[in-house]
Amino acid sequence: MRRNRIIWLCLWVLSVIGISLKGGAVTYGLFTALTLVPVVSLLYLLTVYMLFHIYQNSEQRFVTVNEPVQYRFALVNEYPLQFVGIRVRFFTDFSAITDLDDETEYELKPHTRIEMTTRLICRYRGEYEIGIKEIEIQDFFRLFRIRYRNKECIHAVVKPRLIKTDRLGDIELTDAVKASENSRSEPDVTSREYVSGDDRRFINWSQSARTGALMTRLLTGSDHQEIAIITDTFRKSGEPAEFLPLENKVLETALSIAYYFSRNNICAAEYHLREELIRLTVENTWKFEEFYNNISEVMFSSQNDHRRLYETAVRRPDISGSSMAFFILSSWDAETDALLCELERGGLRVEVCFIGDNENDLPDLSCHKNCGLTNISPYSVSTKESGG
User: Which of 70, 227, 39, 226 is nearest to 141 (CA)?
Assistant: First the structure.
């Protein structure tokens, strides 16, 4: 394109020199034609911009991370004008199109269309645009190029991937299974006030009627019954390129842990902050689909700061009464350290799953004697292992 502009400019300068030195119909005609070339080129680009159509669609709007879906797009010319030098630019930050690239140049003859079918993969959980991002058109003389944003992008809702694994970083999940199995027991006669998410089968209706508050039976040794998964939903950055990989890996980790315990028929309770601290439970794989859908809808926000998480979590006896806890987060501060201290105070074993790829951001847990630390990169590709 730069070369063509230089050639045109040289020819135009020569035509001006020709007019100055000699004149004549031929010289003036050449000067007029060369002067009109950029005008005609710009008019052509404006016409193509107004008449050119592009259609695209994906097999489904709700997709799962790293699960390919069918993707189609069509370039359409419905007019008696040939379109040349057309390129399409795809969204590439959070998704990928297979078998296609941005350098392919298309030419559409009058009343024709080009259709392409391929596969599209979304890399991160969240809501963002996929498919064709921009369109680039050129004129016949390759003097000008116009790039403009596609007006009809596909807005995808991407769910986190479920990784069925027995190991998460340095954590051997079997150890947690054994710790939980050693303390399982039957309901005792004592009761406590019902907490949202408790198993309704253990509600003590007679005592509830006497006290006027919903009561649930405690379990013998119930201080060691459940696996707690605390999921941090604090969004520390406003840039999608920064927060999408982190949030995707946070939820992927929570799902992996919960699925492992549900597969072993051990009740796991997941806690995350919204307007209040939300509790989601899963006891076995039969109920996991509902749990997965609920986790997929978890919202991250800058308002879900660690102070609110600390204030709500320390008031929950069901967390401190768990057999062990997993704390999944992507940033560390004084509030998260204080929460870890509160959890450890009652002898609770805590595994901190820190999502990040910068070793300087890792929390210092040297003062914590009853916890472990696993660093998981937000860009790591987990592999599914055997185990169902």
Answer: 39
Q: What percent of the chain has pLDDT over 70?
A: 87
By three-state DSSP, how is residue 164 classified?
A: coil
The per-residue pLDDT for range 55-74, each reduced to its tens digit, is 999 988 789 999 999 999 99
Q: 10-33: per-residue pLDDT in tens?
A: 988 988 888 888 777 888 888 899
How big is the CA angle at 215 (ends 209 and 217), to the nearest 5 degrees? 120
Phi, psi of 172 (to 5 degrees): -90, 105
Rounded CA-CA distance 327/311 in Å is 15
Q: Report which of 315, 295, 283 is spatially closest to residue 198, judged by C-alpha positions.
A: 283
Distances 175 to 85, 179, 388 between C-alpha atoms, Å? 61, 6, 18
CATH of 51-159, one of 3.40.190.150, 2.60.40.10, 3.40.50.10540, 3.30.10.20: 2.60.40.10
Measured on CA atoms in the order 307, 377, 255, 160, is the torsion positive or negative? positive
